[in-house]
Structure formats: C-alpha cells, structure tokens
Design brief:
282 residues; mainly beta; two-stranded antiparallel ribbon
Length: 282
Amino acid sequence: MPETVMPGPVSDLNSVRESVCIHTKKVYDSCRDKDCVEDLRFYPTVNAKNLLENAQNTRGGSAELLYVFTDVEPVNFNRGYYSVDMRFYYRVRLQVYTGTPRYTEAEGLCVFDKRAILFGSEGAAKIFSSDTVLEEMDVPALLRTNLPTAVVEAVDPIVLSSRVVDTTNGFGGASAGNLTEVPAFIAQAFGSELVLNDPDPVRYFVTLGQFTLVRLERDSQLLVPVYDYCIPQTENAPSNTQEDPCSLFQTVPFPVNEFFPPNTVEVPSDYNAARSLCENRN
C-alpha cells in the first residue's frame, strides 16, 4: 500500500490510485483590487448625529464590512463576459472629540459601489435535482446555470481619513442624492436608527482603503487523480485542557523596542500594521 499522502505539493505521481470524476466549482476568471475610496458619505445614527453636532474635531476610527450585495449580468456584444456589480455596506466608527481628552465613537453607515468585468464562459443547461426533506416529499429544484456565480472575498477596510463639510455653497457633494433605502438586516446592525434624509447642510465623509478578490465560478465535472480517502490526521485535544498562563507568558519575547525606542520608524508594510496605525494615530 502506498504511503499516506498529505495535501500539498506533489513530487511523485506513482502513488496515484485512480482517476475519479468530481463535481465542484471551477473558477473561470478572477481579479484582485486595492481601492482607495475617497469621500464616502457617512450616514450617522441618531445617537451619533447628536454627538457630532457638539463635536470639536473628528478623526478616522475603524470600519467593519457588514455585507456585499452582488449582481451578475452578461456584457452586451462580448460573449462569455459578465459584469459583477457590488455594493459594500460598512459600519464605520469615527473618533469624535467634544472638549475632553478622551474621544467618543460615533457610529454610522457608508456604502461603496464597485464593478468588475470578468470572463465566465457560457452555459444554457438546466439541472434538476431533489432536496431531501425529512418526513416530507422530496422537492425538485431547478438550478439556473446560464449565469456564473460571483464570489467576493474582502477584508475589513482601513479608515484612512475623515472630514466635515458644509455644503451650503454647493461644495463637497451637496448635489449627491441621499440613500433612499437600506436593507433591514443592515439597519438592524446599528445601535440606533440611521439618519438617511438629513436637511442639515453639514455632512461627513470618510476615505477607506479596501482589498477585495472577485471571481466567477460555474458547476463543473473535473477528472482528478486520487491518492486515497482524506482521513484526518490530527487528534482532537481534550476540551478541558488549558495552558498555564505563566508558561504562555514565558514564550513572549522581551519587548526591547518598548524600552529603547528605535532611531527610525518603519512605514507599515502589511494590512494589519496599516490598519492598526490608522486606528490608533492621534
């Protein structure tokens, strides 16, 4: 019997046992984006609105990606290509200063629209299947396969900056329309009601940095080599096992740089460092 083969790079194909046909999602096209989204309208909650009216200064805080709505449509006169329209819903918390050294967080909604054009091939087949329902008749289901499936992967954005604009003179997006509708489950993610149609000419804008991966997939049958059944190799650890706090502390390296500041400060080179810097800067 051949040796156990673990998932990863393969250097020897002699241990392949057979070829099997599997049903899975095949990626036809994908892209990645690094968007700097400038001056997104910030829609505060009722509580945040009252706080902002007495604010002396605001700074960028943190942002959380709540949901991405996606829609796939064929591109006219370009067979096999599709437009992927995305709408990102963010919960943004701004740092508001009202005369005290400690800031207070003001919560609100930001919305970002984005489009990508990707190749997704063509397909017109209709697949009928049955979903098993306990103690009931199996219900046949019709799956549309004429459109590929869009998958969007994204991390929480980085709040790069924020600003307050008086739009009385038409500057800063005074002509931009307000949001007319927000999905109920998005509105429920906030601590109080959102202020969408505000006659106040003072508006709030934020700039976000967003990383995304977008791909188009289709159901496909692929022929793949098989080594063996995938059997877990890691044993389950007892649930009552707790690591000794002091033993854990001993593994933490001594923070020399905290006692002896470096002569130079490095520019953040990754996502976590950049987000931490933007959230904690004064």
